[in-house]
Design a protein that fits this description.
Elements lengths: L4 E2 L6 H11 L5 E10 L5 E9 L8 H6 L12 E9 L4 E9 L9 H14 L31 E11 L6 E10 L2 E3 L11
Length: 197
């Protein structure tokens, strides 16, 4: 929603891809999420946060090049309280694969990147701090061994954001009919994209 923040009942495939890319992102690979296993009950929490109404505006290029006064901004004069309804105490298992892109080099291969990913997960390494939705909701990423079974729940979620398709003529959100089957959200392939076997 534009003003009030309301979470989907389960993390979106694009959020799952973002977590995977936080651990291993390379121009040579493209992550595809196949399924999201919901391992903890779906519970929402509501809270309020102080936010600002305006977006940060960069100074004009002339000011950057030649110097000059930059307008002052006081957050106290531009503050608003907004409600957020977010998930709490989440636990997921992400089923995904990656394929090599056209930017892969001669020395790049699937086995190399699988080893890199597994090593980074085992050591708790990441390129940037993984988070869920807002940066203050830090995610801890662990290996799948010993994960609990999915929750025994089946229900329809309706339309859910799959991903954003970026293009030269603008960005377009892609949605899909989301359904949880025995605690597993199956993710269809993105339209117009090849899927690896």
């Amino acid at each position: 929603m534009k003003v009030e923040r309301v979470s989907y009942p389960v993390m979106t495939p694009s959020a799952a891809r973002g977590l995977l890319e936080a651990i291993l992102w390379k121009p040579a690979i493209l992550w595809r999420v196949r399924a999201i296993h919901v391992l903890a009950p779906i519970v929402f929490a509501a809270f309020r946060r102080n936010e600002v109404n305006s977006r940060a505006i960069a100074p004009a290029q002339a000011v950057l090049d030649n110097g000059g006064p930059v307008g002052h901004y006081f957050a106290d004069e531009d503050r608003a309280q907004r409600n957020t309804i977010a998930l709490r105490d989440v636990d997921y298992l992400i089923e995904a694969h990656f394929s090599l892109t056209a930017r892969a080099g001669g020395a790049d291969n699937i086995a190399k990147f699988v080893d890199m990913f597994n090593r980074r997960v085992a050591k708790g390494q990441h390129f940037h701090q993984p988070y869920l939705g807002c940066r203050e909701f830090i995610a801890e990423i662990l290996a799948p061994e010993g994960a609990p079974t999915p929750i025994p729940e089946t229900r329809n979620f309706g339309l859910m954001l799959h991903d954003i398709q970026f293009g030269p003529h603008g960005n377009r959100p892609v949605f899909f009919e989301a359904r949880l089957e025995n605690g597993i959200l199956r993710v269809p392939p993105l339209p117009g994209k090849e899927e690896a076997a």
